[in-house]
Amino acid sequence: MSEMPLTHELLIRGGVFAFVLLGMALWEVVARRRPQRIPRRQRWPSNLAIVVLDTLAVRLVFPLAAVGAALVAAEQGWGLFNLVSVPTWLAMVASVVMLDMAIYFQHRLFHVVPWLWRLHRMHHADLEFDVTTGLRFHPLEILISMGIKLAVVALLGAPALAVLIFEVLLNATSMFNHGNVRLPARLDRWLRLAVVTPDMHRVHHSIVRQETDSNFGFNLPWWDRLFGTYRDQPAAGHLGMTIGIEDFREAHDLRLDRMLLQPFVNPPREVT
User: Fold this and answer.
1) pTM of structure
2) Which of the residues 5, 9, 86, 134 has the least number of beta carbons within 10 Å of its own beta carbon?
3) Where are the domains of the chain?
4) Which residues does the UniProt record annotate as the domain Fatty acid hydroxylase (predicted)?
């Protein structure tokens, strides 16, 4: 079983990615939450190209990625769950939850440290909010994020299968909670108890600074409530709110070359 996640990781992740992306894209057509003034054909090619670049960068710099790191940690006896005897199911559940908490704090860090914000703001600079926004991350941010993730995996001694499950869930929920989809208000309230919903995460993409610095969770919604960063709704409402950041408001900023150069132009915002 220990070799299974690494052997089939790309197939599993690729299959789930394609299924969720297609499903969310169709859902956005059938039940759109917000009208979009910038068409998909203008945004999607660059947003999807970033996914290709990110994948190539990770495989080049970290050939084994997170699942491979978990296998190495198990072989070397590194990390908490390789040193302390606990039931396998408990190690897996705890690893998924703790990895998600680590991603929450990493996300907050990228909003606080100016040079990290330079990288992360490319994600926020999308002028619309839909499924491909959840894939739009600068390659340098992805590499730093992977480095942090590898360290957490090694410290935890997380089982390889748990890491694979987490990676698949994180990718799928990122596409889900960035979806421009409509959910009944009552269902949204119930779902927020277990997963970050599109309406919850959309607040995070508001141009209003106080709203941008809230709702940092990607997968589990608990951390924002627990650590005081939860905001229920945008002040202007979901139909009235402005998506994006003030620095990049022109349509040409959506081009791939401009996206890749964004960290190196304009001063980073001040930390308060």
Assistant:
1) 0.93
2) 86
3) 4-264
4) 93-229
